[in-house]
Amino acid sequence: MTAISPADTAWMLIATAMVLVMTPAVGFFYGGMVRAKNTLNTMMMSYVALGFVGIAWAFIGYSLAFSEGGGLIGGLRFSFLNSVGIEPHGSIPHILFASYQGTFAVITAALISGAIVERMRFGPYLTFITLWSIVVYAPIAHWVWGGGWLGKLGALDFAGGTVVHINAAAAAFVVALVLGARKDYARQAIVPQNVPFTLLGTGLAWFGWFGFNGGSAFGANSLAALAFSNTMFAPMATLVVWSLLDLMRTRKTTAIGAATAIVVGLVAITPAAGFVSPLSAIVIGAIAAPASYFALLWRARTRLDDSLDVVSAHGVGGIVGALLTGVLAEKSWNGVGDGAMFGNMRQLGIQGVAVIATIVYSAAATFVILKVIALVFNLRASVKEEGIGLDVTQHGEEAYSRGEGAILVHADRS
Fold first, then answer.
1. CB 141 within 8 A of CB 164
2. What is the dihedral of CA 137, 142, 143, 148, to 10 degrees?
3. Cβ atoms within 10 Å of 326's Cβ, excluding its own
4. Would you kindly state where each structural domain of the chain is located, as residue ranges?
5. pLDDT-derived band at 189, boundaries 50, 70, 90
6. Are 390 and 380 in contact (CB under 8 A)?
7. For a disulfide at 280, which of 49, 191, 296, 328, Cβ 3.0-4.6 Å?
């Protein structure tokens, strides 16, 4: 049994807190891009994941993901954190490992909300993210990180390109289709109400992402330093390329575009962070920019109301990162294996299998979960509730007070 390392434990305590901050950061990132009447509801969709998904993870999610089991799902040994104590798990306490992994489950569920803001009722949403974290997130985490079939196949996902981002994007696509478009979609301009909120959320997310990727080395070591550095360089490259694309297309660079670019770069480097060189990280960030940029422009011309472009940012960015990991991975940096660029063409195929398997399972299981919930609850807010805004109709509050009694007046109208 490996002894607990104080240095590794200290770094993982910090990294866990950093990743936890990413979920409120997503709340600010998303909250700035919706209309004022839906600000609190949008932010709450992220914040409540901290509770509902976090407790589901402690009760059963962690066990399904990381206890011994088959190739598809773990067992129940760690249910309700049974047998999860301060004993070593590698060089850190087991409970710290479980807590760190729990922050990933929380943020993955919260990411989905960006596709369905301004129209999903809050009660069904709570039910959905709780069930989804158990039925979808935990099994895919087991496939890749918990001893499941993708990990045994040799799939490389350092910090969650498939498990987190592609998984969330596939679910977001399905939920957006099932719910349908907002009543005002493609009929009137729906513009961000607080761009500084979005920029704040971006900055906090980037800060937290150093724990997201750097912490996935599970120690204060050279691998963490590599992942940390790649998490800095890749979004820088994405930001440069995205800004140039904006300038060439519109002669302007928008703050929302810059924020989106940074997130796309962070998403793209996530699966590769500990497998590629810093120069390759820059290449990944640069390639992810046009892929997501033009996917976003294409989506805007369709009837798919992926409100805050989860599919374009997290789906396309995650796919680019996962596949390029199979191209640019270098054994000299990690000791795990080379990619296609360094003579191992098989790795690219394995990465493709991981991407497809994640999309298919996440999409299918998400659809089933939604249909089951719809047997009991109305998933979607009424047209009247949408018109008033979900802050008032779902929470009885307003982000920006319009005078004494405003909430009661709106509540009466609902």
1. no
2. -160
3. 29
4. 6-380
5. confident
6. no
7. 328
